Amino acid sequence: MSRMWTALMLEAADAEAKKMSRQRMLLQRLKNRERLLQKIPEWQFRAHYRLNKEEFHSLCDELRHNTSLKGSKTTSLELKVLTALNFYARGSYQKGVANEVHMNQKSVSRCIREVTKALNEISNKWIQFPQTTKIKQGFYTKFNFPGVIGAIDCTHVAIVRPAADVLCFYNRKGFHSLNVQMVCDSDLRITNVNAKFGGASHNSHIWASRRLQSHMEALQLSGKSVWLLGDSGYTQRIYLMTPILNAEPGSRGENYTRVHVKARNCIERAFG
Going by DSSP bridges, is the β-strand pair 177-184/190-194 parallel, antiparallel, or unpaired? Predict the structure, then answer.
């Protein structure tokens, strides 16, 4: 009986020693990752994560104090954020990220999910439609079109055939997609995006279901003479200018449409 007890005690001690060894190894790996982060040159850090180090640390502080994101014994909050940023920047497979941060793919997936959830918790604070003055100036300087704060259109982004609501995603071009609405400025920078609707949804339906319309109405009510430029698939509004179809040659309508088409082409180029 005493021999069996001794064997059990030795086995338990051995298991505890192995557990402690694994924890020490994980902690050492975590420290090595943090040292590596400090050694990466600023230019290389920005290339890998699309933020500089100061912006990265500010983001981590914001997530730590204002979201549910937490670090763990083996994966610090900073490492979770770095992993997610690397994935966002790559636009590729998780295995490539896993190799770079020395994690398995399952851990990478968990980090991306947690960080994305946390970013959504603070999105309304940081993601807003930009101030209109600079955008108006850009369109006026390039196209001599006053009051424009964006060009708007939708584009179909192909997806794998979904398991449910198939008809909602099957578009008129014969494939499954998301009909993504975007707004850009004169420099092709995206200022607003809505990717909630399937390919079967019409552009005008997506426009009517978005906060952007309410935002444009509020700008008009506040006395600002600003508008978006859309194609003929949209309904003309006081804040949404569309081309005049079949305008009489040489008329003011034809001149307006010519300038409109040239300025609105920004969104086509942005899609490209």
Answer: antiparallel
Q: How far apart are CA 109 and CA 101, in angstroms?
A: 12
Residue-level length of the chain: 272
Distance CA(271)–CA(32), nearest Å, equals 41
**In the block, which residue shows the tokens 């949804």?**
201
> Phi/psi of residue 184, each to 5°?
-135, 165
**Strand-pair partners of 152:** 183
Closest-CA residue to 48 (of 9, 99, 88, 16):
88
Per-residue pLDDT tens digits for 35-74: 666 778 899 899 889 999 999 999 999 999 999 999 988 8
- Which tokens in the block code for residue 137? 């100036």
Mode of pairing for the β-strands spanning 148-158 and 227-229: parallel
Q: Which of 194, 230, 234 is nearest to 212 (CA)?
A: 194
Quick one: which of 37, 38, 22, 119 has its CA closest to 82?
37
Compute the distance between CA of residue 39 and CA of residue 204 in angstroms, rounded to an integer: 51
Stated as kind and residue range, the H or E segment containing 118 is: helix 105-121
Per-residue DSSP letter, 157: E
pLDDT digits (tens, 9 = 90+) for 207-218: 887 678 888 988
**DSSP state letter for 248:** P
